[in-house]
């Protein structure tokens, strides 16, 4: 199965920072952003995120691949095939 890693483009730097007096706000932002990954995080189902797309600014957009329990090797093989077809190791966003 494939789905987005996050439900938005990468948020701006500092998006998850919070004032210690407002921990609820930070928790809400994290929960909203991790909507697609939380189920696998809780159940332990094998999943991985691959940077298969980029925003216009060059920031990576992740696609989460979810495998069957005990089938981590299938995810690694698929990731290797995708990286061969669409290399991402040399794609870095411009940092100022």
Notes on the structure:
32% of the residues lie in helices and 19% in strands. A hairpin with a 5-residue loop joins strand 2 and strand 3 (60-66). It has one domain (2-85). It is of the alpha+beta class. The protein has helices at 23-33, 38-43, 72-85; strands at residues 2-4, 47-54, 60-66. The protein starts with a strand and ends in an 11-residue tail after the last helix. A three-stranded antiparallel β-sheet has the order 1-3-2, with helices on one face.
List keywords for this structure.
three-stranded antiparallel β-sheet, alpha+beta, 3 strands, 96 residues
The description of the largest β-sheet is: 3 strands, antiparallel
Tally of separate helices? 3
> First CA to last CA: what distance?
36 Å
The backbone outline, from C-alpha atoms, is flat
Spell the H/E element sequence.
EHHEEH
* Strand composition percent: 15-25%
Give the fraction of residues assigned to helices: 25-40%
Low-confidence stretches: none
How many strand elements? 3
User: Which structural class do you get from the secondary structure elements?
Assistant: alpha+beta
- Count of the separate structural domains: 1
Strand order of the largest sheet: 1-3-2
**What is the subunit organization of this protein?**
single chain
Global mean pLDDT: 87
Give the radius of gyration: 15 Å
């Amino acid at each position: 199965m494939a789905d987005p890693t996050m439900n938005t483009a990468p948020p701006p730097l500092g998006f998850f920072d919070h004032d210690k007096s407002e921990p609820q706000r930070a928790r809400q932002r994290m929960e909203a952003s991790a909507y697609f990954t939380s189920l696998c995080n809780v159940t332990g189902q094998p999943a991985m995120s691959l940077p298969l797309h980029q925003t216009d600014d060059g920031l990576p957009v992740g696609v989460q691949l979810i495998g069957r329990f005990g089938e981590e090797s299938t995810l690694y093989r698929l990731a290797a095939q995708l990286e061969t077809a669409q290399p991402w190791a040399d794609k870095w966003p411009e940092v100022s």
